[in-house]
Amino acid sequence: MHLRSVAIAFSLALFLPNLVPAEELGKEGYVDSQGVKIHYVTKGEGPLVVLIHGFPDYWYSWRKQIPELARHFQVVAIDQRGYNKSDQPSQVEDYAMNNLVGDVLAVVDHFSQKQAVIVGHDWGGMVAWSFAMHHPDRIRRLVILNLPHPRGLMRELVNNPQQRDNSQYARDFQKPDAAEKLTPERLARWIRDADVRQKYVQAFRRSSLEGMLNYYKANYPRPPYKQPKDDFPRIKCPVLMFHGLKDRALLPGALSGTWDWIDNTLTLVTVPTAGHFVQRDASELVTRHMLKWLVD
After folding, report:
1. What is the pLDDT of residues 103-136, one digit of tens each?
2. Structural element, H or E, at residue 69
């Protein structure tokens, strides 16, 4: 896969100044998830908010949101398995969605709270949707950033040629030799701020490139795409969605009909100037809307 296709998939965005030292964002810790060690950073007190990053990313993705959320909540930003300081299982099946959801459940249990707000971006968003579907009693509210409901994405892969074309990167990532074509430096190249980019390079050097791509190999639909069945468990909690409309990997057409799969309120915030990494491209807007929605 060429760097150009990587850039399209990641929706190259605005640079982020003001590097925040990691030690100022919270305290580090680890959770045991059925023998897999999950690293986290936590800050604040109160109801639990779990932040789940996507690809290619790590807990530091939420550096703009953590300080403000921590004024009202105990915020826990995790490294998903395969990333940074979390364990990196070697088998594709280790990254199946039930295992990823199990990691989040282990985090909620670790902090001894009956329910949590679950926030997810990209693959973290898919994990968050799945957590809400299968553990409705453990989630208070759901926040999704640039990851349509899986039923909507599957529908678009079947019916929208542009989405199929723009998902070529995912099919490339599913190839056996895909990790050989990636490096930590390439994965972080889209970040224009040199200090932030270096932190990402270091985190990706600690990560498993194979593990990162196993999310796609274990969970992303493969052609021939089939019309999704109407068998997804319905979402019972309130949902807040953000979607940067310049996202080239996940087109906004997949958002249509989301309200049909939720048995509660849905708040959708579209951001015309933002790309795939909306929590960074429009960090102030996202933080302000998220905090108001959670605190009200």
Report:
1. 999 999 999 999 999 999 999 999 999 999 999 9
2. helix 66-69
Are 40 and 107 within 8 A, CB to CB? yes
CA distances 294 to 116, 142, 192, 249, 291, Å, are 11, 10, 31, 28, 5
Residue type, 71: R
Domains and CATH numbers, the chain: 3-13+23-295 (3.40.50.1820)
Please tell me the predicted confidence (pLDDT) of residue 20: 57
pLDDT tens, position by position, 154-173: 999 999 999 999 999 999 99
18-24: long-range contacts at Cβ-Cβ below 8 A with a sequence spacing of 24 or more? 19/193, 19/195, 19/196, 19/199, 20/63, 20/64, 20/67, 22/60, 22/199
What rounded mean pLDDT belongs to the chain? 93
